[in-house]
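Researcher: Please translate sequence to structure tokens.
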Amino acid sequence: MRYIVLSGISHHVIKELEHEKIKTIEIRSPNNFRSVLETEAGNVIILTSRSQEDIRPGTQGIIVQIRGKQVTMHRVIQKTPDFYEESEFQLARLQLEMKGHARVRRTEGSRLGEAMVVDADEVLNFEGR
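Model: Translation complete:
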């Protein structure tokens, strides 16, 4: 099945999702932000701790369903007597629900500015190696 991937997610977040089943995360990294923009509530995606460049056949991750999505703009102001700087950044909040585990069969590409998409199989039980 085809999935959009969010990569570089911390092991801590993945373990919490496996244990608690529902968690809200914030996405700020540009490579994942594009993937988030191409999803909607109800979509099923994969999270992996591997970096986007390291995702290849055999990469494991968890399958999650997006329960809620919110994209917001934040403004940050830094001010001293000699200095004033204002910057803005976007972030996305996703409420995710754990659905299972997956193993990547093949990657379908991730050109600059596009979402990372993979073809993956659900892992129904863990295999000893």
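Researcher: Any highlights?
Model: The first helix runs from residue 11 to 20.
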